[in-house]
Amino acid sequence: MKANKIEITSSEQLIDITKSVRDYVDQTRLKDGFVQIHIPERTASVMISINDDWRLQREFFDKLNHLMPKYDGMKFTGWTTACVKATIIGPTLQVMVHDGTLMLDKTQSIYFVEFQGPGERQYFVSISGTTLADNEEASMPEELALIFDKRQAYEEEQQRIQEEMRNEWRLREENCLKLETENKEKTTNEPDREK
Questions:
Q1: How far is Cα 173 from Cα 187, in angstroms, rounded to an integer?
Q2: Rounded to whole angstroms, how far apart are CA atoms 109 and 178?
Q3: CA 116 to CA 39: how far, in whole Å?
């Protein structure tokens, strides 16, 4: 087991701890099994969520605070609300490890979630399962590689669609400018009808 300290700098915060967990799996040479993350803090929890949207932290807390506000009218609800939120998300998480690799999509991360900061907190990581042999290296399992390949194909398709949309917009803008220029030329070349 390994204890990790973490510094919380705001009242509500998501902190990506995936690298720390991955490093622990590498250090212990876990081959097949599980890594467990436990947070013995009453206002904190651990979860897996997306890592490819910069709005995650704001929207996560906005939505959760909409369901369980920190204030009941003008009255502060105290520690209870933060504790209930932490309980709902959960203090413990278990992630599968196969061939020495965390079974997470590349758009997933493990987050330490704090509901009543700031301050110093800690979380514990432990493993269960078989370890890699001395001459064995971790490798990405075929099942996870297929997920990554599908994700890569999806991202490439999204980039292709975005480029097509940009090209369409450029063409439309060019046509509008061309039409405006033609209209201006017509207007300046037409004889003055009042004369």
A1: 21
A2: 49
A3: 14
